[in-house]
Amino acid sequence: MTGRRLGTLAAIMALAVLAPPSAVGQVSAAAPACQPIGYLEPPVGAAAIVIDQLEGHTALAPIGSRQERSGPSGVCVLLFREGNETPVAVGTTNERGQFALPRPAPGSYILVAASLDTIDDLAVPVRLTDIPADPERGLLLHVRAEEDDRGGLASAIPHLALRRELLEMARVDQAVRNEWVRESPGGAPSPELLSRMAAIDAANTARLRDIVEEHGWPGSDLVGLDGARSAFLIVQHATHDVQKALFPLVEAGYREGVVSGPSYALLLDRILVRDGRPQVYGSQAGFFDGELVLEPIEDEANVDVRRAEVGLPPLVEYVEQLKSLLSSPR
Fold first, then answer.
1. In this predicted structure, what is the pLDDT of residue 12?
2. Which residues are CB-neighbours of 289 under 8 A, at least 6 positions away?
3. 13 C-beta neighbours (distance < 10 Å), count
4. 23 burial type by CB count under 10 A (0-12 exposed, 13-18 middle, 19+ buried)
5. In sequence order, what are the residues at sequence separation of 6 or more whose Cβ sits closer than 8 angstroms to the Cβ of residue 188?
6. How far is the C-alpha of 96 from the C-alpha of 19, rounded, in Å?
7. Mean of all residue pLDDT scores within the chain
8. Read out DSSP for 243-306?
């Protein structure tokens, strides 16, 4: 089979550019929308999470799924002194679920994440350190829908600096690809743009390999969900040899729950197709004679069972997503 391969949905959807933390969470803008949100007591016996900065993001797992995704947006994030009804810092999550609030004086606080109609209220005891650690720690809020009977919780993001770096690498990656979409929708990039894209991919890949050598695969337990997805985006645009070399770490991260199922599946399929072998999850597609055609799938009759196991939608829905994306104006 020959034709122009599209690659994974994650790669071709021109993933939204990730905002740097400095662009997130302004007290004055958030305060009016969050005024109805008041002080909440955390669950009895909840241990304080030690952090250095009021920075991080929310993650939401759809009901019935273990796979978390970034977001939602517009969640009020408020910081209270214990037992005090007046917040000392207020912000909202941006469209990617990210937040960053001014750092108050060190001490013990209650952080409340809530919205008026979308998520179950979450109250978390936190302790802001006297002297920020190196690396600084932030906060990942695992929120739940109001009708979800699983309770929300929070965990630390141990390496904020590395998270910021990965977000910036992903932003640069997407900026040059969005430029391609604007200049040549549906066509090949110009030689100058192709050269710039190759240079960005090479630099990002080299830095990612350095990060992996020092820290192992940067999963959500190290850099948060958005940082981990930034690392995945970068490896998606690495060379085939690099992808194969790093895949065992991605697979191990998936087994340990710090790499998302869709990320694992998309990378595995990409490697298999480039090796000339059938894909497992049906994520790779191509244009052939002007039609969208999936690359060969191993045991296609059971592909939806495998897709469900890693948190991917049924194959027919995925194909419709691809067709809708490709037919929509950009």
1. 40
2. 3
3. 11
4. exposed
5. 194
6. 8
7. 87
8. HHHHHHHHHHHHHHTSS-HHHHHHHHHHHHHHTT--BSS---EEEETTEEEEPPBTTGGGHHHH
Neighbours of 275 (CB within 10 A): 9
Residue 326: is its pLDDT beyond 70? no
Total Cβ atoms within 10 A of residue 283: 29
The model's pTM: 0.86
Look at residue 26 and tell me whether its pLDDT is greater than 50: no
Q: Is 241 exposed, middle or buried (0-12, 13-18, 19+ CB in 10 A)?
A: exposed
pLDDT, mean of residues 66-88: 90
Tens of pLDDT, residue by residue over 226-258, are 999 999 999 999 999 999 999 999 999 999 999
Tell me how far apart the alpha carbons of residues 315 and 27 are, in angstroms, rounded to a whole number.
43
Domains of the chain, earliest start first: 4-16+161-327 (no CATH), 36-158 (2.60.40.10)
Residue identified by tokens 């994306």 is 325
* Side chain identity, residue 247: F
Can you say whether the dihedral through the CA atoms of 193, 199, 203, 209 is positive or negative?
positive
More confident residue, 116 or 50: 50
The predicted model gives 116-124 an average pLDDT of 89
Q: Reply yes or no: is the peptide bond before residue 72 cis, omega within 30 of 0.
A: yes
What length is written for the chain? 330
Q: Which helix (H) or strand (E) holds 88?
A: strand 87-92
pLDDT confidence of residue 30: 58
